[in-house]
Amino acid sequence: QVQLQELGPGLVKPSGTLSLTCVVSGDSIRSSNWWSWVRQSPAKGLEWIGEIHHSEYTNYNPSLKSRVTISGDKSKNQFSLKLTSVTAADTAVYYCARGYCGGGRCFGNFDSWGQGALVTVSS
Amino acid sequence: DIVMTQSPDSLAVSLGERATINCKSSQSVLDSSNNKNHLAWYQQKPGLPPKLLIYWASTRESGVPDRFSGSGSGADFTLTISSLQAEDVAVYYCQQYYGVPFTFGPGTKVDIK
User: Fold this and answer.
1) Which candidate from A59, A63, A111 shows the least CB-CB separation from B61?
2) Does residue B50 contact residue B42 with C-beta atoms inside 8 Å?
3) d(Cα B54, Cα A16) in Å, to the nearest integer?
4) Nearest-CA residue of chain B relative to A93?
5) Taking CA atoms, what residue in A is nearest to B61?
6) Is residue A102's pLDDT more than 90?
7) Are B60 and B53 in contact (CB under 8 A)?
8) CB A69 within 8 A of CB A11
9) What are the start-end ranges of the H helices in A58-100?
10) Are B97 and A46 in contact (CB < 8 Å)?
């Protein structure tokens, strides 16, 4: 059974960079699945940030694309999120999630989620 | 972006009664290449991540009780809980995965009356 765990600082200063890592067990990030970051805040609800495939191919939410980088580390079976120039509006619970695969194709619904990491942007 | 809306914002249903949640997308999420609606439903309880209940608008995820069912096509969808149980108290979200960026509805809170 796949497990995902988000790791990273819970507090980031305004204008700084938010960095989180998702450690995956029970599955490989080299698999066919896409691996995503999703955040949740009272103001914006659930918001998809972006995804990575085979640690190489990425898609990003256009609303965040200029500030986001998602990368993968196959040797450690983990993938990471970097969000630059953060403001209070980036305060949220950040989840990593696995995209669903079926019938030989993979899609953007999420069948496994990490427990979430609360990141607060404050000085 | 495809905008997802849900109604109602919240509802309270008696134990054993039916709960119905509606979801609309700003454009069709029916994929002609596989004739499937790229629409999922999630359940989220306090302090926990969302849990996938239904995908392809009507396919239950493994282990999900059959009192949960999804229906609809194109841009109009419904999640039905046929006989509400105490453990079903949660917020329910719909999500489209037809196009990037994937987008979620604002959620519907279900409580016991």
Assistant:
1) A111
2) yes
3) 38
4) B49
5) A111
6) no
7) yes
8) no
9) none
10) no
pLDDT in the model for residue B35: 93
Rounded to whole angstroms, the Cα distance separating A52 from B46 reads 28
CA distance B110 to A64: 31
Cα(B40)–Cα(B58) distance, integer angstroms = 8
Q: Which residues pair with B104 in a beta bridge?
A: B95
- Quick check: A82 pLDDT over 90? yes
**Alpha carbon distances (Å) from B37 to B44, B62, B83, B98:** 22, 19, 25, 8
Chain B: give the shortest CA distance to residue A48, in Å: 6
Residues of A in contact with B25 (CB under 8 A): none
| Gap between the Cα atoms of A19 and A17, Å rounded | 6
CA distance B104 to chain A (A): 6
User: pLDDT by residue (tens digit) across B45-59?
Assistant: 999 999 999 999 999
Partner B contacted by A57 (CB < 8 A): no
Distance in Å from the first CA to the final CA of chain A:
39
Average pLDDT over residues B6-11: 97
